[in-house]
Amino acid sequence: MAKAKHVSETPATKLLKQHGIAFSEHPYDYVDHGGAMEAARQLGLDLHAVAKTLIMEDENRQPLVVVMHGDKEVSTRNLARQIGCKRVEPCKPETAQRHSGYLVGGTSPFATRKTMPVWIEEELLQLPEIHINGGRRGYLISLSPQALVDLLDAKSVQAALDR
Fold this sequence. Notes:
Structural class: alpha/beta
Mean pLDDT: 94
Number of helices: 5
CATH topology: YbaK protein
Radius of gyration: 15 Å
Strand content: 25-35%
Number of strands: 10
Oligomer: single chain
CATH architecture: Alpha-Beta Complex
Distance between the termini: 28 Å
Helix content: 10-25%
C-alpha cells in the first residue's frame, strides 16, 4: 500500500496554528466506511485514543458535536439526559456536512461552518494525546484533548457504550 502524502492545510489546522496549538499530522489512505478503526489500523494507533467526530441534532434540530472513542458508540439516551435535551440523534450525512462544512469521514470538531456546542467523552480528556480528524478524509492529527476545551469550550459527558 502506498504511503499517504502530506495533506495541505485545512480550516481545522489553520485554526490550531492561529492559536499556537501543537499537533502532529498523520495522513492515511481513506477507505469508505472504514472510520476510526481503519485509520487506527493503518497508522498503528490505539483505537481507544482515536476520537470520532459526530454531528448530531437535538429534538429542535439544533446541531451539536460529539467526540467519542473510536472503539465506543454514543448512547444518545444518556447524552440527551446529560445535556438537558429530550432527544439526540445522528444527522443524515448531507445535514452533517451542511452544519460542519466537512465531508462525512473527514469531519473535524475544529473550524466547523456553524458554531455548535461540543461534547467530549470524559475519558478522552484524561488521555495525554488523542488522534482526531484534521478536516479531510484520510487525515488524522494528534494533540492534547485539552485543546478541545480551550478552543471549543468542549464539555465532558459520559455517554459511551461498548461496541
